[in-house]
Amino acid sequence: xxxxxxxxxxxxxxxxxxxxxxxxxxxxxxxxxxxxxxxxxxxxxxxxxxxxxxxxxxxxxxxxxxxxxxxxxxxxxxxxxxxxxxxxxxxxxxxxxxxxxxxxxxxxxxxxxxxxxxxxxxxxxxxxxxxxxxxxxxxxxxxxxxxxxxxxxxxxxxxxxxxxxxxxxxxxxxxxxxxxxxxxxxxxxxxxxxxxxxxxxxxxxxxxxxxxxxxxxxxxxxxxxxxxxxxxxxxxxxxxxxxxxxxxxxxxxxxxxxxxxxxxxxxxxxxxxxxxxxxxxxxxxxxxxxxxxxxxxxxxxxxxxxxxxxxxxxxxxxxxxxxxxxxxxxxxxxxxxxxxxxxxxxxxxxxxxxxxxxxxxxxxxxxxxxxxxxxxxxxxxxxxxxxxxxxxxxxxxxxxxxxxxxxxxxxxxxxxxxxxxxxxxxxxxxxxxxxxxxxxxxxxxxxxxxxxxxxxxxxxxxxxxxxxxxxxxxxxxxxxxxxxxxxxxxxxxxxxxxxxxxxxxxxxxxxxxxxxxxxxxxxxxxxxxxxxxxxxxxxxxxxxxxxxxxxxxxxxxx
Length: 558
Prior knowledge:
By secondary structure, the protein is of the alpha/beta class. About 30% of the residues lie in helices and about 25% in strands.
């Protein structure tokens, strides 16, 4: 009795985020209830666009408001017929109700299947048919703009419309009305290892595959990451990542665990985000490299970003020049004339890892070698393996393999792909990397993006970093294109900074002068930012570029 009381006292004395990291029974079903118990009416989020539900017409939400919304939505879904174990698709605009609705689906005992609001009806149809979903939650904007007709997804038997009942279309069940009629409900009792969500991959190398997630998968790494990152309730953060992607959903979890106050924006638009950072005195921003590139092109010197203490990045290789440019604009703290730069956190992960695998924090003079993405975040383990799965020694390049609680249970309905993905408890990431003697991981490239030029292996990420050094280039993607003599050669597809005048020939000549001959692009194509095929997290879909330019070198004899 005394020992239990003593342990309870120690738990109460620990900061909330350390307390949460040690809670093994935390699930998507009880997550917001625990947050409300810890923080009650403390500010949780300010929404750039308010919720428009008749019982929740909110622009600002407390932790208690968020828990109440999740409870009512889960109860409403049960009343609408949602049953434990079934898959429920959801594709709504990226407002604050989207991540909470995902939690609510899980709280009702069902399996949430989030989909990017930019997907078209035929793309959603593939996902819904693949996972066997018969119910879908959409809002009017997504349905009219991207789907158009229920016939586009014929397997759906119940269409539920999110948003205000005044915008409901004929033939839909109104989530707004169901929320108002829903009774209080404690939700399904979930086991942490029960399936709660399926996050589909971006399909950059073929058809999307559904990574099956449990509460333990989705919460463990995020809880530990929240405990490690030097961020707390005094921080305000700007959230504009897509919550339908595991990166955005993971950031939502981390933000709640540390108790920060979030400013929630539906869309990323460089000028609007920079204006919000300045206006709202934002202390933390997490984005992907393409977002940072767009803000740099917009011109960050025109904005006061001194309130920013932390920047973060994931989903793709982050150029060090971008990180340093933003760090220099922020201020970690002020001590008289001493104003150290903001710190920068970079995460390596992927959908199948439910977020964080390795973490690096650049702070107050702490430097990392180029290409380093940090140390594995315990209990995650990382090793480098050869084609047969044998562990390679420090310094050798091979495939990155990961083990830990965040690993997906597998791909939905695809045992063959699951067997290729997970071998002897280790997830084969499909990424090329190496580890040094200190245990730090270095990301080199995606296995499928390595370009075989004659007898050389050219790593596209390495070449992209070089091309980005051209003063007129805003973004660059390097892909391997078939060549009749050399099998493959590198092609650089670039977008230009506003007002830049460089031609394709100018950039190609610069590349030949500044990049080793065997890995320098053999051609350059300039496209508009709108033409660059970005995925949900603004990572370039290189498969689309390879297909688009596949015939570029056909008939070439040298």
